[in-house]
Structures are given as C-alpha cells and as structure tokens.
Amino acid sequence: MATMQDVARLAGVSLSTVSYALSGHRTVSAATRERIVSAMEELGYQPNAMARGLASRRSRVLALVYPAAERGLGGTVAEFVSAAAEAAREKGHHLVLWPFRTDQADEVRDLVLQGMADGVLVMEVTLDDPRVTTLRDAGVPFTMIGRTRDVAGLPSVDVDFERTTREAVDHLVGLGHRHLAFVNHSEATAAEGYAPTFRAEEGFAAAVRAHGLEPVVRRVDESPQAGREAAAELLDRSPRPTAVVTMNEIATFGVVAELQQRGIGVPDEMSVLAIVTSPGVADMSNPPLTTMHSPGADLGRLAVATLLSQVAGDPPPAAATLIPCTLEPGRSVGPAPGAPPAPAGAEPHP
Amino acid sequence: MATMQDVARLAGVSLSTVSYALSGHRTVSAATRERIVSAMEELGYQPNAMARGLASRRSRVLALVYPAAERGLGGTVAEFVSAAAEAAREKGHHLVLWPFRTDQADEVRDLVLQGMADGVLVMEVTLDDPRVTTLRDAGVPFTMIGRTRDVAGLPSVDVDFERTTREAVDHLVGLGHRHLAFVNHSEATAAEGYAPTFRAEEGFAAAVRAHGLEPVVRRVDESPQAGREAAAELLDRSPRPTAVVTMNEIATFGVVAELQQRGIGVPDEMSVLAIVTSPGVADMSNPPLTTMHSPGADLGRLAVATLLSQVAGDPPPAAATLIPCTLEPGRSVGPAPGAPPAPAGAEPHP
DNA sequence: CTGTTAGCGCGTTCAC
DNA sequence: GTGAACGCGCTAACAG
C-alpha cells in the first residue's frame, strides 16, 4: 500500500501538503492539488485508517449497537440502518453494526474507550436499560433509539407513539367506528421492558377514551397463530369491535387470515389499521393493508446527527426528538358498518 | 485514558514488558505480570486500538458485509451473526456488520485496504456476484456465505441444499408420499440470481425423480397471500399432492392458513415440511411445523475460521464447505393418506 | 526473563 | 502557499 509519503514524493511536494490537500484544513493551490490528486490515483493511494485515527484521536466510526441475535433485523430496522449509514457517510463517517446483546454493555463501552468508534447508537432500548447508565458513566458519546423510562438529559430519538396512536384512533373514529381494539405486541416483550408495547398501548387507550369510548387491548404473541386466536376472541366480544389497530406484523397476518376464514369482510365489516409497520407489509395482505409506516429513515438520519453532536461535545438535548408514523392508505380501512357516510371534512385523513 | 507507558511506570517495568504481558508473545514472570495486571486495573487501562493496529498492521476486525436495507435480517441470518461474532471473539477479533448493498463492492474493498478490517465475510452471494471479483482482484481476504456459480478457488461455506432437499424428499417418500410439491422462493429472487432458489429447486426435483416420481415446483412471492394462492392451486391439481416442502417462511404461513380454511387436515391429508428455516418458525403455526433448520450457527463458526485462515495467508480451500439442515420433528408431517404404516426401518429419519 | 529502540502512517504546530 | 519535525500509543526486533 502506498503511503502519504509516496504520494508526496511523486507529486513533488511535502508530506504535510498532501495531508492538507486531503483534509482541506489549509488552502492548497489548485495546481499542486491537481498534481497530488493524480499522484494519488496513479499509486492507488488509500489513507491508512489506523494512522489517521491515532494522530487525530478520532476513528470516524459510529457504531450501531443492535441485539441481532435476539431480534433478527426487521424491515423497520433495516430502513433505519440504511438511512443512518448514508447520513454517517455524508458526514465523513462510517456506520458499523455491533451485534451485542443487551447485557453486554461493558464490552460496548470498552470498545469505544479503545477507540474503535467515536460514539454509539443504542437500539431496542428498554424502559430500564443497563446500557445507558454504563455508557453515561463512562462518558461515552451515545444516542438512544427509543427511550428509557426517564430520558431527562439523555440524547434520544424515537417514534412518537402517543401521536401515532392518537392519529390512528382519530382516523377510525372519524369514519364512524365506536368500538376499537388494539392488537399489541406480546406479553413477553412487555416483561422484558420493551417500551413501545407500553407507550403504544397507553397512547391507544388514552386516545380512545378521549372520544368517550372504551378501549379493548390485547397483547398477542408474534405469530400468525396467535393473531388468529386474538381475532377470534375479538369477534366473539359484545359489542363486537368494528376496527382493530395492530402493532404486531406477524400477528396481523393471522388476524386477517381469521377474518377471511370466517367470511368477515375487510374493510366492510372490520377495518384493520396496522401501525409502526415496515415497508412492504401492506402488500403482503389482500386487500392491501392500510398502514402507518414507521419513520425509520427519518429516525436514522436524526439519530446520526444527534450522535455526531454528542461526539463533538455538545450538551445533550433537553428532550427526546419524536417522529410520528405516517398514514399510508391501503384498502383495509373503511367507514364503520351502518355509519352514515362521513361528511366532507369529518375524516381526518381523506 | 491511561497509556501503556503509564501502566509500565506504575508497575515499575518497561513499556515493552507490558506489551508482551498483554499479547503473550513473550513469556513474562508471574510476579511482574501480576504487578502489571493490577496496575492496569488501577488505571482502568484500555489498549488503544488505533495504535495497536498501526504498529501491528492488523485491525483485529472482521467485517460481515450484509445488504441489510434490501433484505432485513431474518432469524437465520441472526443465528449466523451471533455465532460468527462469538467465534471471532474467541480468536481475539471483533465482528462488525457493514450494511452495504450488493453494488457497493468498491467501498467494501477500499475500507479493507484502508485497514478498517482484516477481512470480509460476504453474505447473500448471488450466482454472479460483482463483489467477489472486486475483492479477489484487490487481494482482500474474504469468505463467501453462499456460492457463486463457479466457486473454484474461492473460499466459501454454504447450506448443503442438495443434501437437504434429498433428505427432505427421502423422508416424505419413506412415509409413503408419492406426489410431492415444492414451494420455493419467488421468481423475483431467481431474477436477481439468488442462488438458494436454484440450488434447492434443482435438488428437490432431482431427489423426487430419483424415486421415479414427478416433482411439482412453484416459485411463490414472500407473502402469506401468495402462499395461500399457491396452496389453493396445488389442491386443485390432479393428482393432488399429499406433501409439500416449503423454503419460504412467510409463504408457508399462507399455505397452512389455506389448508386450514379448506378443512384439509395437517398432516393427515397434507404433510408440510419447511426447510432452511429460522428458529422459532416451527411454533408459529398450529400444529407446530416439522422443519429442517438452517445450520446458521455452524456456518457462522465455520465462516470465521475460514476467513481467519485467509487472513493468515493460507491458500483458499479447494471446495466449498457445505452443511445440511437438520430435521426437527414437529407435527406437520405424517404418513401419506391411505399408505400402509411405514415398516420399521423404512423411514429414513425416525 | 527484561529493557531499549526504531518504526507504523498521518495530523498538526512551527518556521519560512 | 509550502516544508520540517514532533508525537499519537503500540509492536516487534534487537540487545542483554
């Protein structure tokens, strides 16, 4: 591998001039820059990341800590990752994934202290997450995707579950629905402190009650089979719900399958609105689902910006930055059966 | 951050002794090692990865290139990743994920040339993968997970699709089934050269013909809906298949749902055998699926070992290392309807 | 078994 | 606008 010294010699300039031409930390005449560039190309020069890191005390690497083994990497996370990777690259950094479990906080901390990364994006944050205290105490720059129970002074970005569920409910109520159910993530996720399970559930219940209605909430295992059972149970209720909001993609498949099997028309007899969805799920059902798509890409960009600000030494933002999901019309949501056609303007999202 | 020099001073030894105590490249007396260790603890010493990398010309990082944005990260990949990460750590390395698309071969190559990693694990290899030629030409150590069309001289580990499909077919034929169908991945995956789609299909067809039977093969989109349609179509065939092998998890859900809806008993009237599955899918259906589980963990360990051997400069292995999936009994496979109960020994996998 | 020392390749402060 | 020189923290000869 050619070194900077080699480039300097070939271009007939000093080593430092090459360095400045590369970093732009000093102005270099167009002529010499030109010679340097062609020398680099001729030699196939690649800057040595280790040497650069040693001298600058920055690795230009941002690490995304994600418990891949436990969660797999769903479509919504994939969107996040690619947006974050691109955002990092635009700022001259590289995004890498560290597949650590939630209980490996020490290893994450040590890797950053060893200089393998300048900062950390922590995903799948639970209500009480051991990683954030470890990182904070060690002075490691980090940003959470999601929120612990108390986020005061901790940099974080997250889905706005409160607003997302409220908009979902408002939309359905605007279509005349009076009996709404929520198919949530499983009891198991709740047990491990998975925050979205709680935030979405609370948001949904509050939004329904704000309309003077009574919420029905079910926590359902992440399987088609569990979704079928949940649907069966909801259909047996009295009064029978006319709309179901789901935040559990695999269970949603089961819900739709059960409705179909029983001959319950979607959306004529039952509306299905899937929230916090990953791209592509809408078209995996028939009729295509109406969804509220997770803002993964926006969160990714935002998370990188926030983290870089932490790396630069800025004080942590006062509050979490929240982004709601956006409604994407499909054909699984319609007016409540027997409801008068919604008057113009009554439907929040035409 | 404390440096090695700090540790040396506190322990009353020379810098190099600390280095050797850490690396083990030279014997250090138990007494001085003890002093060094406690000095390190007292100072909270963490070796500087950049300095170490600069001096040793090795980053001790292995990169796993995975197109997360396009594929998401399914359960089978998750198993692979965590096993690979652990294997890497046992050898004193770190595994990181680089979320590059398949067309970003140049960036992968450059990062390795810059010293950000010592070698690369390439996942989701297609029949004609641009990344492998780029890496080979650049002399970057790598190992494929999967295989290009021609693997001569290219280090690779992969699922043994030929043997897996053969064992699946043998198992079913041993149970009296004479009409077997295969629900494959989608036409779209085939179009982009996704190798498993071809290898499994060929393996299945060959295995069925080896029994003097006629294979039925369908390429199905990765959605429950598409699975339902496939099942419906298979049921209308004459002769009607009594067993279906699937390699498409999401479609499998649809297949089972359609069978249930039509009142076709599983496994009494139709056996379902899901191959190359990720952990957990078996229990997402009712009855639990009989599966042949993808050897993700074994592949992960093997891939790391192979890559490290490449990094060390060993010649590439002559042939790919293949690992079959293992049968995990569930309750979705049974004797063919009307078939005599299998005599002892007639069933390949009791 | 331990100490001394010359780099590893680059960033950056000085002088010019 | 350019060049010389020092140091980042550590590895690995080379000497004892």
List keywords for this structure.
homodimer, 350 residues, alpha/beta, 434 Repressor (Amino-terminal Domain), Rossmann fold, 6-stranded parallel β-sheet, 6-stranded mixed β-sheet, 14 helices, 12 strands, disordered C terminus, DNA-binding
Chart the SSEs and their pairings.
The structure is a homodimer of 350-residue chains.
Chain A: H1 4-11, H2 15-23, H3 30-43, H4 49-56, E1 61-65, H5 68-71, H6 75-90, E2 94-98, H7 105-113, E3 119-122, H8 130-138, E4 142-145, E5 156-159, H9 161-174, E6 180-184, H10 187-191, H11 195-210, E7 216-219, H12 224-236, E8 243-246, H13 249-261, E9 271-277, E10 290-293, H14 296-311, E11 321-323, E12 326-328
Parallel strand pairs in A: 1-2, 1-3, 3-4, 4-5, 5-11, 6-7, 6-8, 8-9, 9-10
Antiparallel strand pairs in A: 10-12
Helix pairs in contact in A: 1-2, 1-3, 6-14, 7-8, 9-11, 12-13
The structure holds a DNA duplex (16 and 16 nucleotides).
What would you say this structure looks like, in words?
Two copies of one chain form a homodimer. Chain A has 14 helices and twelve strands. In chain A, the strands form two sheets. In chain A, strands 2-1-3-4-5-11 form a six-stranded parallel beta sheet, sandwiched between helices. A six-stranded mixed beta sheet of chain A has the order 7-6-8-9-10-12, with helices on both faces. Among the domains of chain A are: 1-57, lambda repressor-like DNA-binding domains (434 Repressor (Amino-terminal Domain)); 161-294, Response regulator (Rossmann fold), CATH 3.40.50.2300. Chain A is an alpha/beta fold and 350 residues long. The termini of chain A are far apart. In chain A, α12 (224-236) packs across α13 (249-261). Chains A and B meet through α4, α5, α6, β2 and α7 of A and α4, α5, α6, β2 and α7 of B. Chain A binds a DNA duplex (16 and 16 nucleotides) through residues 3-5, 13-20, 22-23, 25-29, 32, 47-48, 50-57.
